[in-house]
Amino acid sequence: MADGIWIIGASMTRFGRYPDKDVADLASDASLDALADAQATIFDMNLLAVGCLMEASAMLGQRLQKQIGQTGIPVFNVANACATGATAVRTAILAIKAGEADMALAVGVEQMGKMGLLGSAGRQQDKPAGYEPSGRYGSVMPVEGILGTQLMPGVFAQAGMEYAYEHDGVGFEQFAKVAEKNHAHSALNPLAQYRKVFSLDEVMGADMVAYPNTLLMCCPTGDGAAAVVLCSDAKLKTLDPDVRRRAVKISASVLTSDPYVESDTAQPDVSTLTKHAAAAAYEQAGVAPADLDLVELHDCFATAELIHYENLQLCEPGGAGDFIDRRAPWRDGSTPVNVSGGLISKGHPIGATGVANLYEVATHLRGEAGDRQIDGARVGLTHVIGLGSACAVHVLERAAS
Amino acid sequence: MTAAAPDRIPIVNYLALDDGDPHLVAQACAACGALYFDRRNACARCGRTEFTDQALETTGTVRAFTIVQRAAPNVPVPYVSAVVALDGGGVVKANLKEIDASPDRVALGMRVALTTFVAGTDANGTDAVAFGFAPA
Predict the structure, then answer these.
(1) Gap between the terminal Cα atoms of chain A
(2) Which of A127, A161, A173 best probes binding to B when mutated, by most B CB atoms within 10 angstroms?
(3) Any idea where the domains of chain B sit in the sequence?
(4) Which DSSP string corresponds to A362-393?
(5) Regarding beta strands B23-29 and B15-16, do their DSSP bridges make them parallel or antiparallel, or are they unpaired?
(6) Are residues A86 and A167 located together in one domain of the fold?
(7) Per-residue pLDDT tens for A351-399?
(8) Which SS3 state, helix, strand or coil, does residue A82 take?
(9) ipTM value of the model?
(10) CA angle at residue B92 from B39 to A309, to 5 degrees?
(11) pLDDT value of position A113
(12) How many contacts, defined by CB atoms under 8 Å, are there between A and B?
């Protein structure tokens, strides 16, 4: 990007369950901590973008302001399925690039409680009065489970299985190894919702949800928030030396939607839009996949992470099975992926995820990731994808010293 | 005079039951040939607004599948959900029928053929007929 945009403050709550807090509490916690981290206050912000899928029409940005500072700045309440948080960040970036803000706060938050299956369908009545075709497909009843599945575990299972169909060396074991890795990684992350190590046998032997995704290969529902404070190049130059030292550069910020593919009639394609976003991000940042020191990608299900190894060009075309088999994406491998524990173990409060992965990468680039620090990290990539679909990819770089 | 309730009705309007053997009918873009199962406002590939009905082949290949063990209420498990690429064009999601819901039995790339089954019956005695794919 021609003019730099910087992350000068970042924070996330531990992901988990917070029955005694509401979404505004969680958003406030992350926001106040990120602002303090930036040595700034809400009174310094020119714009607020808040991503919370379940509260997208409920003015959460304004409710946050009423808790932490009502300054009358523009508020964008943002939704883009699981790419919601990253879209809030992207909104703030666009405003800074347009010259309409020099400092902005972007927040991602969600409170899901114990929601159950992502995308659960409703209960069907036993004996309807009389079948009447309705909707764009002229359906006479909900078709979930009758004409295949549209629930998330199954959709992402099918996406992984399609990759297995097209390439050798990919099967249940390879997908399970992804989850084994992410659970192991989470043990080092105090902010992860779960921090338990599981053997490969335990992952494969867990309750099956939608083959090949077992329960330990699916992300949990939960609560949490993350926030970043962003500023322009020009603004950064005016700030405290300590803030400038810890500033992390956003070298690329890309948002895509899913272009037409023939198979859209059957299910969403999560690969094409990811490939486009990644290619554009690498070009924008002027970095190659081999330059990445760590990646936080969207492992809503273990099958998803595996295909994203290829979509993000972390491995050769067709090479995702081999990539996980030779442990390349482990924290001690050539391209650490999801050292936070990923969505599978760190958690996935929907709106928070796309900001939390920026927090994670920025923390490593600042050398502040403690036990899970990837030594010498200089360049990182974040990726989220929301079904429907939206994909956001960011590339972050440590400030040149 | 009220009409008698029909014996059967397709679960979705792109399943044709009364025009030869059961088969799927897609909306085909008159300009570029892209196929759709839903009511269209325009073509998502080329933007044009004219469509014709296209009867699809009833045989195809399984490109992806999953075996669902946890499902919404009222859906018996396990069942196999599959993405089927139809011979001659069209990609559709449906259940695999007449096959054990086991990874030892279902195979990527297997050949399948369209089959129908009754998904429910309403208070008038009308059957809702759905489609799936069975090993060919």
Answers:
(1) 19
(2) A161
(3) 8-135
(4) HHHHTT--GGG--TT--EEEEEEEETTTEEEE
(5) antiparallel
(6) no
(7) 999 999 999 999 999 999 999 999 999 999 999 999 999 999 999 999 7
(8) strand
(9) 0.94
(10) 115
(11) 79
(12) 169
